[in-house]
Amino acid sequence: MTNDKSNKNNIIRFPNLNGRLLEKGMDSLKNKKYDESLSCFEQLLHSDPLHSQGNLGLVLSLVELGRLHEAKMRCDRMLKEGIGEYYDVLQIYLSILVQLSEYITVVSVIEAVLEEQKIPADKAESFYQLLQFSRKVIEQEGVPEVKKDPESTTNPNPDFLALKEMLSSEKADSQWIAVQQLKRLGPEITVPMFESFLVDEKKHPAVKSLILQYFKENQINKIVKIEKYGQTDEIDIAKLTELNEHPFYKEVKTLIQDELEQENPSLLDIALAVWKDYTLALYPFSPKPENKLLWYEASVLAASILCGIEEEMENEEEELQKAVKLLVELERFYLQS
Fold this sequence. Notes:
This protein has helices at residues 2-9, 17-30, 34-47, 52-64, 68-81, 86-99, 103-116, 121-141, 158-167, 172-182, 187-198, 205-217, 247-263, 265-282, 292-306, 318-336, and strands at residues 223-228, 231-236. The protein is mainly α.
C-alpha cells in the first residue's frame, strides 16, 4: 500500500502545466496584468528554476511593477548561470541599471563584455552608444560629490580623501572620475596634484589629456612637464590647441565621415570613437607617422575588428597592421580601464 500511495503522489495531475503557465503568463504580460503574469512565472520557476522564458517573463513583470532591484538581481543571476539568450538578457539588465541610475555599473559591465567577447555586429553600435552616454552622465553628475570648499588639509572631508585615493589608483576609470570631481575644487588645490599626475608614467594618457584641457579651459597658463608613452616633454598651456581643432585630427575625421556616412553608417560612430580615443590619448602629440590615409584606414579596420566584422589582417601592409593593432589594443585597454 505504501508503494501505491507513493506512486499516486508522483502522478502529474496537470499535463503540460509549465506550458500552460508560460502561455498564461505571456498573455497576462501582454495585457498589462503584471501581478497575474508575475504569479504565473513564479509558479513556473518553482517547478523549473532554469526555464529561460520563465525567468525572462519574471524579470519583465518585476520591471513593470517597479520592483527594479529584484529584477536586477534576477538578471544578474541569469547572466552568471547562462540562463536565456545572453545578449537579450544583457540588454534588459543594462536598461534596468539605467533606470536605477547606476551608470558606473553600466560602464563597467559593457567594458567587461567588450574586453572579453566579440560583440555581434548588429548589437555593437547600441553598446557603444550606451557606453558613451553613461560616461557623459557620470562626467556631468559626478561620483562621489565633493564640496567646493573642502576643510583644511589638517582635517580634510572624507570625499576629498576618497578622491585623492582614486586619483592615485592604477585603474584609469577611477583616475578619470577623480579628475572630473576634483576640478570642482579650483586651481589652488588641484594644480599641484594634477602636475604630479602628468609626469607619472603609470597614469593613463587619456586622463592626462583631460587635465591638459582643464588647464586650458581655466587659463592656467604655465609650462608643465608631461609624460606619455615613454616620451617626456614640456608643454606651454597657452599655446595648446583644442583637440577638436587639431588639423590632423579633423582631416582624418572627415575622411572617416565621407567614407562611412553613406556606405556603413552603423560603423561610423565606432570608427570615429576609435580615432578620437587614440588622438585623445596622444594629445597634444600627433600620431606617427602623420599619414592621414593610414590612420583613416586603420580606424575603420580597427572598428570592424572590434565589432567582429573583420578578423584577419594578414593581407594588409605591415605599417597598416601595426597601426590597427595599436588602435585595437588602446581601445580595448581604454574600455577595460
